[in-house]
Amino acid sequence: MKFSARHTVKNSHARTGILTTPHGVIQTPVFMPVATSGAVKTLSPEEVKNLGAEIILGNTYHLHLRPGEELIAAEGGLQKWMNWLGPILTDSGGYQAFSLGATRSKSAKTTDEGVRFFSHLDGKKLFFTPESAIDIQLKLGGDIVMVLDDCAPFPATEKRLYAAVKRTGEWAKRSTEHWQREGIALRQAQGKGLFGIVQGGLNKELRQQSLKDIQSLPFDGIAIGGVSVGEGKQNMLAAVDFIANDLDPTRPHYLMGVGEPIDLIRMIHRGIDMFDCVLPTRLARHGAFWTTNFKRENIRRASFTNQSKSLDPKCNCPTCQTYSASYLRHLVMTNESLGLRLLSIHNLSIIFNLLREIRSSIENDNFVNKFGPHLS
Amino acid sequence: MKFSARHTVKNSHARTGILTTPHGVIQTPVFMPVATSGAVKTLSPEEVKNLGAEIILGNTYHLHLRPGEELIAAEGGLQKWMNWLGPILTDSGGYQAFSLGATRSKSAKTTDEGVRFFSHLDGKKLFFTPESAIDIQLKLGGDIVMVLDDCAPFPATEKRLYAAVKRTGEWAKRSTEHWQREGIALRQAQGKGLFGIVQGGLNKELRQQSLKDIQSLPFDGIAIGGVSVGEGKQNMLAAVDFIANDLDPTRPHYLMGVGEPIDLIRMIHRGIDMFDCVLPTRLARHGAFWTTNFKRENIRRASFTNQSKSLDPKCNCPTCQTYSASYLRHLVMTNESLGLRLLSIHNLSIIFNLLREIRSSIENDNFVNKFGPHLS
Description:
Two copies of one chain form a homodimer.
Chain A: E1 2-8, E2 15-21, E3 24-28, E4 30-35, H1 45-51, E5 56-58, H2 60-65, H3 69-74, H4 77-81, E6 88-90, H5 94-100, E7 109-110, E8 115-118, E9 125-128, H6 130-140, E10 144-146, H7 158-179, H8 184-189, E11 193-198, H9 204-215, E12 221-224, H10 233-241, E13 253-255, H11 261-269, E14 274-277, H12 279-285, E15 288-290, E16 296-298, H13 318-322, H14 325-333, H15 337-363, H16 367-371
Helix pairs in contact in A: 7-9, 12-15, 14-15
């Protein structure tokens, strides 16, 4: 895996870059739509591609449960199976194992060995280790593989945060060692990349320690975790600000689980190159959408009942070019899944258009000027 | 509205024809996908068009409840509102008013005046008359408008069937009179058409009486109702056979609610020109699909788990050209709505491909030869 920063900006950490993967080249800053269970909710891979996606994210927890990595491997990997011809980043599954993998009486449990959890489908006892998380992701066909990390819940005690950072560091080391073993090294040689994850919650020292731990290892990219877990906007900014100056500029920086347009601008300003988030499709399922000036609106509002115009007259997405807000509102109010699909298309377009604008403004040394009011 | 039979077949009532509507020309025999509430479930109007649909059906009952015909009229009619640029047939709403329009304590009730029913959404008391059913459909923008008829439940007593036929005839007369009144006649002059409906259940004399009643009136087309309501295949054939020889050849013949491929073949043989049915999309929602030899299969079957091939190797639909059965099964098993959408696309393609083959075989005087085993 190869990353090269193309252009950096004065008075900002914002930069454009090129990330080369086995399934194609990605222009950063990039947003990865989430194909939780083999599909970006309501959309075909072709639609996602046409909207401007260059890479998508697959959820290891969900795919491990159904249909299982063995089936996907036998079908030629996620890319071939779901007909997504570009790169795919797979998460480690740890976060979902911890948040979804509980029964009524037993919760998921993290030990030094790994995460023990229970399938939310049938209660089956399962286990992820740093090693097995990599093995599963390689079977799924991930171009970018994420390490298993220990993401402390929010809020957490200092003691728990400290333990999470320590364990995350130890698992990171085990992960890079596993990654370099025979067989796996072979796959790595195909150009796949392994990313480490920085934890540490809202504790500056712990964030910096975690960054040091992760950056001391031969990861292909540095991810920042635990910033979208129940924390407010200001906290999210703080967590990134603790380490923004110390991010290794030779590697890509990936902020996990962030997708609000305004946050993308702020975080790109802080040096982030990659994002993923379920928001564009999740908001759509609740009738919510972004306007071209990054405000949230809801199509269920009565004022849209008779709006013959599109959702946003300034939007050039396929939904806004074709359908009135009145029609979209009707679809959502009557639970027609086409409504969710058309809103998902709009929301993803807002994100991809924003990223195109941002990349272009960086290349033209105009980023700070153009997005100034949104940077802090 | 103009209909001309183009080609008829020896030893069969099968024929091709051209139906001219205000929103374009339809080649018959034709299948109309059902856009119940302003959308063919899970599909965009553009997708429906690309699959080969030339006309769709809108449900007056559903659209009357939400968003209401006034809103749709203000938005320029169904065609403009939902971005379906072709013709639309609207049903009268009577069938759904009767089957859905009941509260826990009160059922819908048919009197000589019309159908009294209750909104299934909020229990509001509503009323359709032959006249109001036309008015609503014209506001919706129907190119083909259906009369309100009295469809007796199945099974029905002879007395109830007789009453239904009598009332259907009286309402048909009121409908043609209303259609010819000033203002409405104006719309008719735009090329819209009004279709009458033949009832009579499984009683030969009543079917023939009803046909005589309907054909004596200046309808633009003759529909056959009450054949898909809880009746078996043999009964459906019998009901049509009672009147097949007496259908006026100068007008189009529309069999309501029939969409199983094998039934389309049989019924086209009996002189039917038009069909509508929710089956292609309803089956998809249950994981069911048709093969190219008109058998029903279900993607949930375990044997599809590892099937790297498409649903049907002989199918050239967008779904089969792109996705494996294994992937489609996964989408359906995990309730990803993309799965329902891809199966709907397949099922509609099976129907449209069949109709293309049938029309071509009729034009080539090869229909009886080609579809012989399926005709009886």
